[in-house]
Amino acid sequence: MKKAQIQFMEMIFVLLILIIIIFIGMFLYFSFSSKSIQKKGEELLDLDAAILTDAVIGVPEITCGSNCVDTLKIINFDSRDPALGTYYLNSYNSPSGRFKNMNITIRRVWPVPVNEDVECDLGKFNEVGRYPDDNCGYFVVNKGIKQPGQSKEIIQNAVALYYPTKERYEFGLIRIEVFK
Amino acid sequence: MKKRGVSMFPFVIIFVLLAGAIILMFFFGFAKGVKEQGESVNNLQIVNLLDRELDSFTLAENARDTFEFPSEPEINITCIGGEKSRIQYGDARRDTFKLIAAPGILKGKKLDAWTLAWEYPFKIDNFYYLGNKKIRFYSPYSPPGTAAKIDDNIPATHFSKRNVNQIDAEINQVDNAVNILYSDPVSFNPNLKVKTVKIDTNTKTVTFYKPDGTAEGPEPYWGLPMAIAAIFAEDYNEYKCIKEIAKKRLGRMSEVYEKKARELESKETDPGCKGIYQQIITILDIPFDINGELDGNYESGLIKLNRQLIGKNCPPLFLT
Q1: Residue B41: which of A37, A60, A165 has the nearest Cβ?
Q2: Which is it for the CA torsion A158, A159, A161, A162, positive or negative?
Q3: Mean pLDDT throughout A50-77?
Q4: Which residues of chain A are within 8 Å of residue B32 when distances are taken between CB atoms?
Q5: How far apart, in whole angstroms, are the C-alpha atoms of residue A95 and residue A83?
């Protein structure tokens, strides 16, 4: 092989290496920027804590006014009721499910409940004379399911609990766990 | 014959040009992709921002706000099949069950939003109204009562108490004009930007008039917030679509309060109160007639019965 041919081959080789390096660099840059855009997109879906609490407490199916929830409505509320379709539970880009990816519970705080680890449901409501003072401690608004790899953010806020049958108010704590 | 050496220079030039062209093409394609993705994220950011701002209105009875966007987007609000509302900007969109009334495409850096709680008679949901300075509302005369209340709920910055025929000079400066009438005769402005809506507060109906005078309707409205939605809605079909979503919400909330009434009735010992709860259950059980319209006694009947419960010291169905 002549010297000129060797030089030519060398140059092609160097240029090829250069192109490969550029392509690898571009690939890495693109994957990083793509991840960063994806992260930004996820951040956009995050709800501000205050807005989120208001949005949950303000749902007409459970609310009884500003920062107040009607316990009788909560007991009768089932976010998984097939009649509701996906109103509360659908995912992003289908109509915004108000409770999507959320665990929402409301604890009775004051007066201090006797059975604080027992859920207040329709069964407990029907225990005449015992509800809610002696038989339950918290209400479940929605049960979200945490998927593998999802992180959890917890938001808590004070809320008034209204008992229509007794026409009285209690002090409670709403706990919203958002899975992201 | 003398052997001649082959010059490599032209080959090197061709090779470099080809390689350069390939690299440049790749760079241009890459830059274009990044730009498109950036725009897409930006559009999504604006759509989300608007939806989130509307979320912050959830607890409000009556609130107004002006949102400012980083760019000057063209936001399109449409009602889809009586099922949901769609907020769209470019390729980004967000579907929501919110009751949003807006006169078509909203272009501008600033967007004005209002909300009114729809209490009929208990809270069903919120109606959201969107507009900007390029949308104006005209009402020459509003009789006292509901009509005056409707006019009062339209911000003064977007409202003129003038006849539609006196607004020609202003029309070129706006994107949409809404002529609100509460009685006959209906006066038109043939300009395509002008929509005329007649609100009959006696029959509780709205009629839409196209610029050529063609009437669409009358269509009943259920409460003042829905009448205002008719004013903001792009046209008759859009109003009907929003009303269909509202109807589903009303049906759903009727079920919620019916269940509540049944529980209250089951725990009640006073026969007088029991009777009232039973009447409430009857109204809430079948709120719509065979034509899909709301029973005329729905709101007034529930208010009356709830007052009776309060009067008898029984737990009320809803708090006022």
Answers
A1: A37
A2: positive
A3: 86
A4: none
A5: 16
Q: Which residue has the tokens 């080789």?
A: A13
Region of B108 (left: φ > 0; alpha: ψ -120 to 50; beta: rest) is left
The residue count for chain B:
320
Total number of residues shown for chain A: 180
Per the CB < 8 A criterion, the answer to whether B132 and B111 are in contact is yes
Query: Is the previous residue joined to A82 through a cis bond, with omega within 30 degrees of 0?
Result: no
Q: Is B8 on the interface with A (CB under 8 A)?
A: yes
Structure tokens at B265: 């009735």
CA of A93 to nearest chain B CA: how many angstroms apart? Answer: 6
Please state the pTM of the whole predicted model.
Answer: 0.81
Q: Which two tokens stand for residue B83?
A: 């099922």
Could you give the CA distance from residue B128 to residue B115 in angstroms, rounded to a whole number?
4
Identify which of B22, B95, B315 has the shortest CB distance to residue A94: B95
Task: Please name the member of B19, B26, B51 whose beta carbon is closest to the beta carbon of A96.
Answer: B51
Q: Does B32 touch chain A (CB under 8 A)?
A: no
- State whether B12 and A8 contact (CB < 8 Å): yes
Please write the tens of the pLDDT for every residue from B20-50.
788 788 778 877 877 777 777 778 888 888 8
pLDDT tens figures, A93-137: 344 556 777 888 999 998 888 888 999 988 888 888 888 888 899
Flag if A164 and B34 touch (Cβ within 8 Å).
no
Q: What is the mean pLDDT of residues A50-74?
A: 86
| CA nearest to A51, candidates B45, B57, B87 | B57
**B319/A83 touch (CB, cutoff 8 Å), yes or no:** no
Running DSSP on this structure, what letter comes out for residue B270? Answer: -
ipTM score over 0.90, yes or no:
no
B74: alpha, beta or left? (left if phi > 0; alpha if psi -120 to 50): beta
Which 3 state secondary structure label does DSSP give B272?
Answer: helix
List B179's β-bridge partners, or say none.
B138, B196
| More reliable by pLDDT, A113 or A38 | A113
For residue B11, list chain A residues with Cβ-Cβ distance below 8 A. Answer: 8
The single-letter DSSP state of residue B162 is S
B260 vs A: CB within 8 A: yes
The string of pLDDT tens digits covering residues B226-263 is: 999 999 999 899 999 999 999 999 998 999 999 999 99
* Cβ pair B247, B213 in contact under 8 A: no
Q: Which residue of B has its CA nearest to A81?
A: B252
Residue B94 bridge partners (DSSP): B87
| Longest CA pairwise span in chain A (Å) | 105
